[in-house]
Amino acid sequence: MNTADLSYKVTSTEDEDKQTFLQKQGEIPKHIAVIMDGNGRWAKSRGSVRIFGHKAGVDSVRDITEACAQIGVKHLTLYAFSTENWGRPKGEVSALMRLLVQSLRDETRKLDENDIRLVSIGELDRLPPTCRQELEDAKELTAGNSRMTLCLALSYSGRWDICQAVKTISQKVKEGELLPDEISDELISGHLATSGFPDPDLIIRTSGEYRLSNFLLWQSAYSELFVTDIYWPDFRRDELYRAIESYQNRERRFGKVPSRMDVDESSVALH
Ligand code: IPE
Ligand code: IPE
Ligand code: MG
User: Fold this and answer.
1) How many helices (H) and strands (E) are present in the chain, helices listed first?
2) What is the pTM of this model?
């Protein structure tokens, strides 16, 4: 049995200083969600095949998971495979599924050792049986952990999520368990795959694309967005810290007036 110490350590004093600075400067987002994009272009820019980029992306997942746990993020959701990604060439899809199985085998003990709970969202029935089994085992092993929840969005899309919630809610209405008038914002949130998680405070997208690509459509209503040109395999903790710093310098108004605006100013009459 491998008895290596797998606990997360301080990578450098410089890194620790950056984390402490951000913790002191402002609020650390409770939930960060990441659209991990650009693996194929990263590989192409190196004259290599796309799967090489996906493999390199696993190192970024490891570093970002560790940094988020260390800095105090409570929920990290990673968009790993979308509903639409099933439409990619067969060879790429099966290579991605194999990579998922291998990564779960390699990384789960380390997650467990560091008190991280693994969960997933998405249409898991579509995953190959070995993937499903490996995922179930990892979830079961880490179910009691509480430092941070790492959520893998697999075979996931926001529209799928909304559809499955609508189906469950309509069934409840049909069976008389629920009245149509009882359908509220909170009730819908409670039927989404992310039920029980706070909405993402910050959504990061790598590779310079300014779109959500069917990710957390309902949950992102008031998320702050951060787009970086960096391809996912090059995205490491220093860029994560830049995203958190940018988040800390924003004012989240949720449709209200700026918090520093006093009552007199906001109630100036139009005459
Ligand atoms: C993201 O990288 C990984 C998945 C969507 C599975 P891509 O494979 O989309 O890489 P690009 O966007 O083509 O460079
Ligand atoms: C979004 O990336 C999905 C994941 C990161 C898993 P895509 O590469 O699939 O998105 P588009 O095609 O650029 O919108
Ligand atoms: Mg892409």
Assistant:
1) 9, 6
2) 0.95
